[in-house]
Hints:
The protein is of the alpha+beta class. The chain is built from nine helices and 13 strands. The strands form four sheets. A five-stranded mixed beta sheet has the order 3-11-12-7-10. A three-stranded mixed beta sheet has the order 4-6-5. α7 (310-317) packs across α9 and α8 (330-342) packs across α9. The longest helix has 39 residues, at 2-40. The termini are far apart.
Amino acid sequence: MVGAFIGMLFAVLLQQPLQDAWYRLRRRSAGAVRSLRRKEESGPAWRTFSLGPLQTSALIVEGDGESPISPESVYVHVLDGEVELPSDMVGWRDEITEESERLRAEGRTPLWNGPRYAVESVDISRTAFEEKPEVHLRLRPTDYYTFLAAQQLDRRLPDGTSPRARYLDPDEPMKAPAFLQCSFAVNIAVVTADDMLVVSQRSDRVRMAPGVWNSSVNEGLSRHIDSSGRNAPDLYALARRGMREELSLEPHESSLELLAFVLDTGKRHWSGHFYARLTELRSSDLQARMSRGVADRWEHQTIEYVPFRPAAVARYMLREDRVHRWAPLAPALFHLSLVHAFGRTPVERAEAQVVRRL
């Protein structure tokens, strides 16, 4: 009986310490195993933008939001010689031409075929002393029909492959032939004087990505409009044209800063991401202005205004009815604009809190 009593006493006294020690040992062992696994992990240096459940194909090639890219650091070169499709893709362009002619014959709106630019390359370097970015954007002439044909990246070619499989390497996203990159545009995050972010929904009438939620302004580079004579196009002038045509904003009504160059790896669309701050116009003023007429009103079917604060914008992007309906380049633009306005640490802290609360 004495032995049993002493055994029970030791069990009671030592049970909790032994359990605590066993728990600490298990936790440390698990941590050591995870640490070993982390050391063995590897991944690509280039990752597309994501925020919690929001996964995009937007690759931020240059720019972090905090430091704008100066206009003097961007060099645009227009090369001679139009882009040519491979022989087994030429027929795809002919199909688009025939479709447009059929629509015209039926008295319906034909497919517009305007002169555009294809991206030959985007080269990034740094200045010798200040290590500021220098961007060399090389363009070639093309047109919209070629762009539409090249957008069929997963269509089967006669040999059973696709343009994506034949010409693109997912491990080297910066490498692609110019005929697959027949799009360069600017995307602009417009913030009103009363701190409201303008968000647009693309019209169901547009051919590319109808109905998705997008940046405040999205404007493609036009060879006819944006190049004067033999001069290369100016990206800031393109951004101001887009703001005037889509939101009826004049150049003197806002500040404008280039934050980044971004590539949509899914569709091979290049973008210059801009942040525009309206100096006097409030959200109500902008709504009133647009009610009196917008040049390209047909491109948008809805305009919404979101409080321009990190947590509010993050919650909006991750809303259940938004998270899977974004144009690929828009979420990265909004994140970079928040970083530019509030700083990286506060923005990332607010975004992390929103993701945890989902």
